[in-house]
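Sequence only, no structure available. Ideas?
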Amino acid sequence: MEPAIRFRFSDLPREIALMIFRYAAEPTFSQKEEYADKNPYATALSLCLVSRLVRRTILPQFLHTISLRRCLSLKMFANALRMQKAYAEKQSDLSVDYTSLVQRVWVGRDELFSLPFFRDIELEECMSLLLPVLLAAPELAIEYCYFNLVVRSAQNAWISRADPDVDNGPSLFPVKTKNLTIMSDYAGFHVFKYHRRRPSIFLESIRHLTYLVEIGTNRRTFHKISRGLEPPEPTLRDWMDDIPWGLMENLKTFSVVYPHMGTPREIFTYMEEIEGLDLHVERLTISVPLFKQDPKSFPWVTAPFPVTACGEKRIQSDGVSFKVTHDRVYFGEFSKWDKAWACGITD
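Reply:
I predicted one. Tokens follow.
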């Protein structure tokens, strides 16, 4: 019997070894394990300790999508940015420009009443550190409770940019955020109530606005919509009336994302929070330019209408389309969208 051929990883050409490291560093957001039990960034964090070359190589994969799903995560990321600021001042080799690498950010909370985790001054400080990264990321998903603070902070930074007595650091503008996703226990109702009469440099930049539906409150409505049994107009019109069109003149689409419910058994399981569940996800999109032309005559779909098949996109009218994911997305907890968003369901 011939001896087994032994091959050391160190014998690989450097280009191939770095390619393997880049692949291994991609976070596994689609995992069924809870993030608290299995950190999707764990492999990348370990690889950062191999060498400075490996660290620099994998950082684009590591930092591409940042999921700050808990208040503690928000604090830890703010601390990392604080350390980077110190590295930059010392011109350290560990200094990295996060604003050039982070492309997608999720800012959420772990439970309904978690905001007391922060003191007001502490939250303001965290947000001031995060703001350059948030405004540089093309895609931002944010809990409603943080949304107002981001809009206000961005506008304050814009106003003070020309003040010689204020050290704003590197320029935050122009804002690069184009896709905005908002999740809330009551998404759509009065999201913009504090921003109707005030100019907003942040809202001006948004091209695509998406709401992640709170399933507990809206499960019956959107189950009927996904089955073609109820028209979306009554629900979506109230939400769209809340949008400050004058401040969001560049907005092209408004979308609502919700589970594409299947059998009654699946619905019951999901509602009762008994166990995790794999579900297809449906995206209902409205053309904003067409809607704004004449909201009263907008070609809304009327029920009954065809059900969109999994993996397909169906254009119902010139201004309304439905799209259902090809693959199912795992929901580990009731109405928790962070994994589904990280896997790209709002792209």
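DSSP finds twelve helices and ten strands in the chain.
Hope that gets you unstuck.
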